[in-house]
Write a structure and sequence with these properties.
The complex is a heterodimer of chains A (256) and B (323). The two termini of chain A are 29 Å apart. Chain A has five helices and 16 strands. Chain A is 17% helix and 35% strand. Chain A folds into three domains: 93 residues, Elongation Factor Tu (Ef-tu), domain 3, CATH 2.40.30.10; 109 residues, Nucleotide-binding domain of ferredoxin-NADP reductase (FNR) module (Rossmann fold, 3-Layer(aba) Sandwich), CATH 3.40.50; 47 residues, Dihydroorotate dehydrogenase B (pyrk subunit), domain 3 (Ribbon), CATH 2.10.240.10. In chain B, 29% of the residues lie in helices and 19% in strands. In chain B, the strands form four sheets. In chain B, strands 3-16-15-10-9-8-7-4 form an eight-stranded parallel β-sheet. Chain B has a four-stranded antiparallel β-sheet with strand order 5-6-14-11, with no helix packed on it. A two-stranded antiparallel ribbon of chain B has the order 1-2. The longest helix of chain B has 15 residues. The two termini of chain B are 32 Å apart. The chains are: A alpha/beta (256), B alpha/beta (323). Chains A and B meet through loops of A and strand 5, strand 6 and helix 8 of B.
Chain lengths: 256, 323
């Protein structure tokens, strides 16, 4: 069930350079959101027609609170960064499929987040614990954010070496000799591509959350497709809708 | 007050003049999670071709001020799957005509289905139209001769009057349903194209398709769209669409479905007063799934407020002031 609703802003604060944490009272959406799903956030400026897809960082179904963590990427997200307590913002969600939590049950699961791909891994970690053996590897350019919120063991990689392993998430995985049965990941395409290759070498399952420019967010417009290895049942061609068949795909099923 | 909102399009009766614009609404299934499709005058489905099309590489869209550019490239699953899946869905979802025409005293028409057809060649259009001939759920056909995002077909057919007349008459001969030609605004004189479609036997016109545009990402020093150019839609193009509907309404006798940037009842009424018999809501559905319903309710409210008993009184009414 998807909802379009007005959400009341509970707070919006900066937690890193151009990174914002927005807490919303959004009962219907927070109550049904699964980790790895996203919401469409609509601008209050009528000149900005398209919603911004933002992943669910935390969803507290009991209290109806949704936490979105996003980076300012343009005028729309800049507007959201200026939302203040008691402001209203319109949302549609929850959208997309989310991570296949069943694949991680009672197994060693490695959650990999790169940059602004880190937020959805937080709710994923919270839902997987304590049943699964969860470890997170988080990659940053320099400044850390959200790392302290994770309830599991966290390994850090920074490009400038200011914290953790100097390099990328795969450098950290190799340096720490981290072993896993399954990988869930969200981050830049170059990171997902490297993880897909790594999972293939290791012979382990790997699910990645993809990003693509979206318009409708609900599967109608076919803007946000990614290339699939096999012909997709819905499209009848080798294209899958990131907003509907995704955003989480088995890495072996898609071209990254 | 007794009000009539139903209109005739090419011999097919619609319960109200508001429909969805092709390509912005899929075949309705995704939007049916947000509202009852039976409230619409018609559902206009995304372009379908005789075989599945892959469409363009991504990124396929970008936002622009009060609008967006798209270059989807008419990705679609092909007419066979469309018939089995999409038309089946619409058939199961849309109610039949009912006798309880509240206020109108007659039959309240059901929500109709307009199938948009695309092709790379005359043969492909004909093949697709022939495959749809036996589909009882396809009430009308809208022929897309104006997509700016495919290299062959699409707009190539839509910008030359002789080509438009030829493809229109070929489709008209092959089609069982009434044929609406969807026109491109990317021409010097759209009335020439409208007249050519009418001469070819078109039962109606849809206008306008998107305006060709381009956006450059200055940070990356590259095109925002993989296709480089895309079709501009949204409120930004509304005045252009109103002007073109007005021009064509004075040039042809067949009915016109007006579209291009409609977001509010006021936008729709402008289009109707310029000469459109019906209107389509497109890009604005991306901003709010229920936009088409708000437009229907807003037209109803306008008629009430201005004591308009029949929506058809408003069609082309600005011409009444001309001498």
């Amino acid at each position: 069930m998807k909802y379009t609703q007005k959400a009341k802003v509970l707070g919006c604060e900066t937690i890193g350079k151009n990174i914002y944490s927005l807490r919303l009272q959004a009962d219907d959406i927070a109550g049904s959101a699964a980790p790895g799903q996203f919401v469409s956030v609509y601008s209050n400026d009528s000149a900005r027609m398209l919603p911004r897809p933002i992943s669910v960082c935390e969803a507290d179904g009991e209290r109806g609170i949704l936490r979105l963590v996003f980076r300012i990427a343009g005028a729309g997200t800049e507007e959201f960064s200026k939302l203040r307590e008691d402001d209203e913002v319109r949302l549609t969600g929850p959208l997309g499929n989310g991570f296949p939590l069943g694949e991680a049950a009672r197994r060693r699961v490695l959650l990999v987040g790169g940059g602004i791909g880190i937020p959805p891994m937080l709710e994923t970690a919270k839902r997987l614990m304590p049943e699964a053996d969860v470890r997170a590897v988080l990659g940053f350019r320099d400044e850390l954010f959200l790392a302290e919120d994770f309830p599991c063991e966290v390994t850090i990689a920074t490009e400038d070496g200011s914290a953790g392993t100097k390099g990328n998430v795969l450098d950290a995985i190799r340096a720490q000799k981290i072993e896993a049965d399954v990988i869930f990941a969200c981050g830049p395409a170059v990171m997902l591509r490297a993880l897909k290759k790594y999972a293939l070498e290791q012979g382990i399952g790997c699910w990645v959350s993809m990003e693509e420019k979206m318009a409708c967010g609900i599967g109608a417009c076919l803007s946000c497709v990614c290339r699939s290895v096999q012909t997709d049942e819905h499209s009848q061609v080798k294209n899958k809708r990131v907003c509907t068949e995704g955003p989480v795909f088995r890495s072996a099923d898609i071209e990254i | 007050m007794t009000k009539n909102m139903s209109v005739d399009i090419c011999g097919v009766r619609l319960k109200n003049p508001v429909m969805t614009a092709s390509g912005t609404f899929g075949s309705g299934a995704e939007f049916s999670e947000f509202f009852d499709l039976n409230r619409l005058g018609a559902v206009v489905t995304k372009g379908v071709s005789s075989v599945p099309w892959e469409g363009n590489p991504t990124p396929r869209i970008c936002e622009t001020p009060s609008g967006m550019l798209n270059a989807i490239g008419l990705q679609n699953a092909g007419v066979e799957v469309f018939s089995k899946r999409d038309l089946r869905f619409l058939s199961d979802t849309l109610l039949p005509d009912s006798g309880a025409g509240a206020g109108s005293g007659g039959i309240l028409p059901s929500t109709k289905v307009i199938v948009n057809v695309c092709g790379h060649s005359e043969e492909e259009y004909i093949d697709c139209v022939e495959k749809l001939a036996s589909e009882r759920r396809a009430d009308l056909l809208e022929i897309n001769i104006s997509c700016p995002n495919v290299k062959e077909g699409g707009i190539a057919f839509g910008t030359d009057p002789k080509g438009v007349e030829r493809i229109t008459s070929a489709v008209r001969r092959a089609a069982r349903q009434p044929v609406i030609m969807k026109l491109s605004p990317n021409v010097t004189d759209i009335t020439e194209i409208a007249r050519a479609a009418e001469a070819g036997g078109a039962d109606g016109l849809s206008m306008i398709n998107t305006l060709t545009g381009m956006k450059i990402d200055v940070e990356r020093r590259s095109f925002a769209l993989a296709n480089r150019t895309g079709g501009l839609s949204g409120p930004a193009i509304h005045p252009v669409a109103v002007r073109m509907v007005y021009q064509c309404a004075g040039a042809v006798k067949i009915p016109i479905i007006g579209m291009g940037g409609i977001r509010t009842a006021e936008d729709a009424l402008e289009m109707i007063m310029a000469g459109a018999s019906a209107v389509s809501v497109g890009t604005a559905s991306f901003n709010d799934q229920r936009t088409a319903l708000a437009v229907i309710d807003g037209i109803d409210e306008y008629m009430e407020r201005h004591h308009v008993s029949d929506i058809r009184e408003l069609t082309g009414c600005v011409r009444d002031w001309e001498t």
